[in-house]
Design goal:
Layout: E1 2-4, H1 5-11, E2 22-27, E3 29-30, E4 42-43, H2 54-69, E5 77-84, H3 92-105, E6 108-118, H4 125-134, E7 138-144, H5 148-154, H6 160-173, E8 177-184, H7 191-204, E9 208-213, H8 221-225, H9 236-252, E10 256-259, E11 262-264, H10 271-277, E12 283-285, E13 290-293, E14 296-299, H11 304-316, E15 322-324, H12 328-339, E16 346-347, H13 348-355, H14 357-373, E17 376-379, E18 397-400, H15 404-407, H16 409-417, H17 422-425
Parallel strand pairs: 2-5, 2-12, 3-4, 5-6, 6-7, 7-8, 8-9
Antiparallel strand pairs: 1-15, 9-11, 10-11, 13-14, 16-18, 17-18
Helix pairs in contact: 2-3, 2-11, 3-4, 4-6, 7-9, 13-14
Length: 427
């Protein structure tokens, strides 16, 4: 049975004590499409910038119209994340335009984390100073690799020199919170090259490092060139070694492994991304973006023309969109999929309160083999593993072990997703 977005936003997440205080803003433009990328993007060429591209300017105007018509499901944003695409193709004025639209609609709290993905070679010192003056206080630099050959294999537009030049600009401007993104499991990549990239990242000393294992997506250039598990992609045991090496290497350098793919110096975790992993509500704005409001997810069109038409219809409908009610079984599986990515895992008390004892008992029965393999553990409130767990305690947390549980998380989650939860269909 369909609900109107405006209707369930009016009820808002306050019924569960949750209101949306985070916003994701998608900036889809890239100079070229990387060979592994299946994100909703629009290629604008190597010379395009927000200051000289009518395509980018038009998009920003439409995006601000969407923000203006979005029903409010909670005011005062604590985090804003500009992702893409390549948000650093925006001019300073365009970034200010979007932030002003968000502030008018929802309000942005003082001290809010405002993050922006940036690519080496796409911004200047003046541009970065303008971003910072506009409110950006955290940047995520898309490095991917520290070997020229691997950058070329990926179809990246930057060089190693561009990486270090970008880091120097970030330091000059004084953006203390910045992250580096790396990809493991690339074609022809060796374990030694991966360790070299990790060492180069640690030498730069960002407050945060994200490491992603390459996924071959259908429809991408890599999807046409390569078959998973086949040469020249690294063998599965090599990518497993890369993952374990990452956890060990970065931990020895003082980074906390707080999520499957993310490491942070103490007190420098990404506040916005934790909203996703904790399954909390957030606004999504822009082409291909997803909102999560009052337990309902809604994705926007992934193509530019379709997105523009959707915004036109949204305006005509006064902000109302048909959304289907998410079954409680699906909510549970989303909660498990996201929460088990975090090092601290999921609160047993919260799971029991949200989904009931029968569902929790079924989850635990399903996870028993992985518990005995050492991939899953239950901890007390101080995250100390409990040696014997039968039945589950009232308090404590359910989590995957690091690195074995994280490494086999797809296997564990696949087993959970095959389960049927009749107790939730009766609620």
């Amino acid at each position: 049975m369909a609900n109107q977005l405006a209707g369930f936003m009016a009820e808002s997440d306050t019924s569960r004590g949750e209101i949306a205080q985070a916003a994701y803003v998608h900036i889809p433009f890239c100079r070229r499409r990387c060979y592994y990328c299946d994100f909703p993007i629009s290629v604008v060429g190597d010379r395009a910038q927000g200051s000289n591209s009518s395509k980018i300017a038009d998009y920003v105007d439409i995006l601000c119209q969407e923000i203006a018509i979005t029903p409010v499901a909670g005011r005062f944003l604590k985090t804003v994340f500009f992702g893409g695409g390549t948000p650093s193709l925006l001019s300073v004025e365009q970034l200010e335009q979007i932030l002003a639209a968000l502030d008018r609609k929802f309000g942005i709290l003082g001290g809010a984390e405002i993050s922006m993905e940036v690519d080496p070679g796409t911004f200047t010192l003046e541009q970065l100073r303008g971003y910072r003056a506009a409110g950006v206080n955290r940047v995520s630099l898309g490095v991917q690799a520290f070997q020229e050959s691997l950058l070329q294999i990926c179809g990246r537009s930057h060089s190693i020199a561009d990486i270090f030049a970008a880091v120097e600009l970030i330091r000059q401007v004084g953006v203390a919170e910045f992250s580096l993104d790396l990809i493991s499991g690339l074609p022809h990549q060796t374990l030694a090259e991966w360790q070299s990239s990790l060492a180069a990242a640690v030498a730069i000393a960002p407050t945060h490092i994200s490491t992603y294992d390459l996924t071959i997506e259908p429809g991408t250039a890599f999807g046409r060139y390569y078959q998973p598990g086949s040469l020249p992609l690294p063998a599965d045991d090599t990518t497993a070694q890369m993952y374990c090496l990452t956890a060990q290497f970065l931990a020895s350098a003082g980074y906390q492994h707080y999520e499957i793919s993310n490491y942070a110096q103490p007190n420098h975790q990404c506040r916005h991304n934790r909203v996703y992993w904790e399954n909390r509500p957030y606004y999504g704005c822009g082409m291909g973006a997803t909102s999560y409001i009052n337990g309902q997810r809604f994705s926007r069109p992934r193509k530019t023309r379709a997105y523009y038409q959707w915004v036109e219809q949204l305006i005509l409908a006064g902000g109302e969109i048909d959304c289907l009610v998410t079954p409680k079984e699906e909510v549970l599986l989303e909660t498990l999929m996201l929460g088990l990515r975090l090092a601290e895992g999921l609160s047993l008390a919260t799971l029991r309160q949200q989904f009931g004892e029968p569902a929790l008992a079924q989850i635990w029965q399903c996870l028993q083999p992985y518990y005995h393999q050492g991939w899953v553990e239950v901890t007390d409130l101080d995250l100390v593993p409990l040696s014997e767990v039968q039945p589950l305690p009232v308090t404590g947390r359910l989590r995957l072990t690091d690195p074995e549980g994280f490494l086999f998380s797809n296997t564990i989650l696949s087993t959970l997703f095959q389960q049927d939860f009749p107790s939730l269909r009766m609620v």
